[in-house]
Specification:
The chain is α/β, with parallel strands linked by helices. Helices cover about 40% and strands about 20% of the residues. It has 17 helices and 17 strands. A hairpin with a 5-residue loop joins strand 3 and strand 4.
C-alpha cells in the first residue's frame, strides 16, 4: 500500500522526482518522471542518473559535478539539455538536494526535474521577434538618413561635374580628383546603408548562382590568401535565381572576407551552394521566409566563431568586433539587406571556437520588369523641392543640350503643364511637400497631357515602389545620387546652344 507521501509525489505531474543513492543510482521514480523521461520504473531502477545527460555533458563530467555541488552547498540547480529514453532532447530545469541523516551523513539525493522546452521555445521566438523588430526599426532609420544624404550627394555630384567641365586649371583638377574619391566613398556608404534597410536599387536578372561564383573564383582565392585552404562545393543542376548579379557577388566577397578574417592563423574556408524546399513544417526560424524553393549560398570557416551576443547583433549597421580601422561593420548588414530585399534571408550558425557557417537564401526565378527610356533631345519639366538639386541638375541638363523648365513642387509643375508650352518629358522627384508626391503628379500630368513621358528620381528603389502598386510600368526610374553620365544615358547628350560656359540665364524657370 502506497504511503501518503507516495500519493503526493505521484500527483505532481509536472515534476519528475527521482531518488538517488550516494553514488547516483536511481532508487525511486514517480509517474511524472516516466512521462518526462520515457523510462518505466522497472527499466530505470538501479541505473545511474548520468543516462539522462548528453554526450557533451558526460565528457565534462557534469553528473558527478552536480552531486558534488549539492553535497557541498546543500542544493544545486542548473538548466540544460537532457536526453529521453528514445534519444530526444528536452530543456530541463534540475534541482538536486542531498538527503542526510541525524549525524549529517549523506544517504542519497533527491532530484527534481521540470521540462521547460516549451518555455524555452516561446522565449526564443520572443527574442527572435524582438531582434527582427529592432532590425526593422534600425533599417527604417538608416533608410531615411540615407535618402536625405542622397539628395545632398546629388547636389555635390552635379557641382563636381560642372566644375570639372568648365575649370581649366591643373590645381582644380587635382582638387576635383580628391573630391571624386570622397564622393565615391560616400556613395558606397549610402549604398550599404540602403542595402541594410532594403531600399537599395537592384537590377535583377535571371542568373545561375554557380556561374556567378565560378567567374569570381580567382578573385575569391586571392582575397582568401595563402594561409587559408579554399574549397568550392557547388551543387549541380541548381534552379536559376532572379538576383542583382553585382550585389550578389559583393555579398559573396563580404562573406568570404569575414570568414578569412575569423581565421588569422589559417584554416578551411568552404563556399557551397544548395537548393532547399521550405515547407510549412520546416521553414520555421531561422528560415524566416515564406515556404517555397530557395537557392542557398553558404560560406563556412573553421575560425574562432561567435558568441550568442555577437550573433544577435551581427546584422546591425556599424557593429563590428574588428580592431578600429579594420572594418566599418557594414559588411554583414549589407548582405542581410540584399538577401531580404531579394525575397530571401541570411542566417548564421556559429559557436565560439568551432567556426561559423553563413547561409544566404534567395528564391528561385523571381520575375522582374525593367523599363528603359529612349534618350532624345527634349523639353524637360524638372521638378524637385530641393533648391540645390534643382538648380545644379537643371544646369547639367541644359549643358547636355536640353531645354529645362524648373518647378519646385507638384502644384508649380501642374501650373506649367496648363500653359501652352511644349513639354516632352516630366522628370520629377517622388518625395515632395504640399500634399502631392511625384507619383500623384505623374497621374495628374497625364490627365492634362495624355501619354506624357515620365522619369522618376528618388533615393528609394524601384522595386520597393512597385510593392506599393503605385508606379506605372511605363515610368522610367533613376536612383539618387545620379551623375552627369546618368542623365546623359537617360536623355542623351547634344551640342549645347552656347559654348561660352554655363548659361547666365536658364531656359524656362
Amino acid at each position: 500500500m502506497k504511503s501518503h507521501m507516495d500519493v503526493v509525489i505521484n500527483s505532481l505531474l509536472d515534476h519528475a522526482i527521482v531518488s538517488l543513492d550516494p553514488d547516483g543510482h536511481v532508487t525511486s521514480w514517480n509517474s511524472a518522471a516516466e512521462k518526462t523521461k520515457g523510462y518505466t520504473e522497472a527499466e530505470i531502477m538501479g541505473r545511474h542518473f548520468s543516462c539522462f545527460y548528453t554526450q557533451e555533458d558526460l565528457a565534462l563530467d557534469l553528473p558527478a559535478l552536480a552531486l558534488r555541488k549539492a553535497a557541498e552547498r546543500g542544493r544545486h540547480e542548473a538548466e540544460g539539455w537532457r536526453v529521453r529514453k528514445g534519444g530526444d532532447l528536452f530543456w530541463a530545469n534540475v534541482v538536486v538536494q542531498p538527503l542526510v541523516d541525524h549525524a549529517g551523513t549523506i544517504q542519497g539525493f533527491v532530484k527534481v526535474t521540470r521540462d521547460n522546452t516549451q518555455n524555452l521555445q516561446v522565449e526564443n521566438l520572443r527574442e527572435e521577434l524582438h531582434q527582427s523588430q529592432k532590425l526593422e526599426m534600425v533599417g527604417q532609420l538608416t533608410g531615411g538618413v540615407a535618402h536625405d544624404f542622397n539628395n545632398l550627394l546629388t547636389a555635390i555630384e552635379a557641382t563636381h561635374d560642372l566644375v570639372r567641365k568648365y575649370a581649366n586649371d591643373a590645381r582644380v583638377d587635382r582638387i576635383m580628383d580628391v573630391n571624386k574619391t570622397a564622393l565615391d566613398r560616400s556613395r558606397k556608404l549610402i549604398s550599404q546603408l540602403l542595402a541594410f534597410s532594403r531600399k537599395q536599387l537592384l537590377y535583377p536578372k535571371i542568373s545561375s548562382i554557380n556561374d556567378l561564383i565560378a567567374v569570381f573564383d580567382v578573385l575569391l582565392q586571392k582575397a582568401v590568401g595563402e594561409k587559408v585552404t579554399f574549397s568550392l562545393d557547388l551543387k549541380q543542376d541548381l534552379a536559376a535565381a532572379c538576383i542583382d548579379q553585382g550585389q550578389f557577388q559583393s555579398a559573396l566577397l563580404n562573406l568570404v572576407v569575414n570568414a578569412r578574417d575569423a581565421m588569422p592563423a589559417g584554416g578551411l574556408l568552404r563556399v557551397f551552394t544548395d537548393q532547399i524546399a521550405l515547407t510549412e513544417v520546416n521553414y520555421l526560424p531561422p528560415y524566416d521566409v515564406p515556404a517555397g524553393d530557395y537557392i542557398v549560398l553558404g560560406v563556412s570557416d573553421t575560425g574562432r566563431g561567435m558568441s550568442p551576443y555577437v550573433c544577435a547583433k551581427a546584422f546591425e549597421p556599424f557593429f563590428t568586433t574588428k580592431e578600429p580601422g579594420a572594418g566599418t561593420g557594414l559588411g554583414l548588414s549589407q548582405c542581410y539587406g540584399f538577401a531580404r530585399q531579394s525575397g530571401g534571408t541570411l542566417v548564421i550558425e556559429s559557436q565560439e571556437g568551432q567556426g561559423t557557417t553563413v547561409r544566404l537564401l534567395v528564391p528561385a526565378m523571381i520575375a522582374s520588369i525593367n523599363v528603359a527610356v529612349q534618350p532624345s533631345a527634349r523639353t524637360i519639366l524638372f521638378v524637385d523641392d530641393d533648391w540645390a538639386v534643382r538648380v545644379l541638375v537643371a544646369e547639367i541638363l541644359r549643358d547636355l543640350g536640353h531645354t529645362v523648365i524648373e518647378a519646385e513642387d507638384a502644384q508649380d509643375a501642374l501650373h506649367q503643364l496648363h500653359n501652352d508650352i511644349s513639354i516632352d518629358f516630366l522628370f520629377t522627384d517622388i518625395i515632395m511637400p504640399n500634399g502631392m508626391d511625384g507619383l500623384q503628379l505623374i497621374a495628374a500630368a497625364r490627365d492634362i497631357r495624355p501619354g506624357l513621358r515620365a522619369l522618376l528620381a528618388s533615393g528609394y528603389p524601384r522595386d520597393v515602389l512597385r510593392d506599393l502598386a503605385r508606379l506605372p510600368d511605363d515610368v522610367a526610374y533613376l536612383a539618387k545620387p545620379y551623375s552627369r553620365s546618368d542623365l546623359s544615358a537617360n536623355f542623351g547628350a547634344y551640342k549645347p546652344a552656347s559654348e561660352d560656359g554655363i548659361p547666365s540665364r536658364p531656359t524656362g524657370r
